[in-house]
């Protein structure tokens, strides 16, 4: 009996184009079509960056494999293709969510160089191949060839770039692509990958950037990479998102096991310890990954320079403020936040390592007593809640004390407000020890600290306005941006936080353009007024 072809179709994965199918089962093999990060319900590309798109793409592929009688557990080899190695760390975190508990498998991470170097196709491409699966009672070889692609075309200018929306995937390579639908865009990406196949560069999995080989002509006229004179790149590619720093700068997800009443408490505690161990290992690994990203990043300050906030009082902030000035030396918001968080985490590594060494499995309890001694990437949710609750309580107490200072046109009372303003800004943002509050004094160097944080917020507001607004931020970064501005976040939904952050950015905008120094002074005064609550609650 001759083998027959059987199409695989499931509603749990995006519907294919009429001329395609999600998968074909033929002669003991299953061939999967491309799978991208589209929500099957809304038929829209998921938002939030590489991690949500990776997660959605793998879930779509999993649904197709289950419909074909297989699963992700049967994958034995994975090929990952990236157009920027900056996406490796966040992609790898999501990869571990699905494959962390599965037996290790060979994996190669490769870098794809676009044909048109003036356009940066910020996307990722994963290929799952050579999967052995049990379907019914027969052993079959599942060769998926599944493609998981992240698409976010960006135009590169110097070392900076502007992100285009995911809906505008015309890629400016062909005018005829401007009217195609979401599914037809997927088909066009397959064509783009085939065109780039001759320039694919293979390298071990790494967060460092890939080199670009020279192309030589072969006798048959085809151009092939010449690897005889490859050299390391002089500088890596920029971050794929100018506003949101890499996901590796934030704590990884902590999945704690739920105890079944029939499960022995001893075995449950073992599983609980494993979950925390995995969390801390991932967080510590992220610290060094971020350090490597910062070291290789070409649009950020060297690690030994002063903090970005100090530089905002000079030409850097002026450059950010004016879109007409040269931005070749001005870093993006993502790179500045990456640098700040790396400095924070590296400075806390020795103490945190000592805590882990001494306390061992009791570390999750100890960090609740000393929450500020932990790197950002190793903070458990309960610890984050303790820090936020403490800062918000301190902020409320500072505002109550500030309410006794009557702010009107009287020069003496205005002078009284100026005297307490710097201390209030430091207390409301959680700067300095709470011991100073109990003694009735401002924190040390309150004036310089307040000036520094105001300058940093002014620069961040400008970057948000110039980079696409609050809507371009992912949810986690919205929460962190609100915290940096003294906006309470505990118990607030993300929609209300976005509205409040949008209101802040709008109110802090200078009234009209003019002299740079005057505009910067007005922006700083507006930020100080918002921090003091002079413009009413946000």
From TrEMBL:
InterPro entries: LETM1-like_RBD, RutC-like_sf, YjgF/YER057c/UK114. This is Letm1 RBD domain-containing protein. Residues 200-257 are annotated as: Disordered. Coiled coil: none annotated. Residues 200-223 have a biased composition (Polar residues). PANTHER family: 2-IMINOBUTANOATE/2-IMINOPROPANOATE DEAMINASE RIDA, MMF1. Belongs to the RutC family. GO terms for cellular component: cytosol; mitochondrion. CDD domains: YjgF_YER057c_UK114_family. Residues 446-522 form the Letm1 RBD domain. GO terms for molecular function: deaminase activity; ribosome binding. Residues 243-255 have a biased composition (Pro residues).
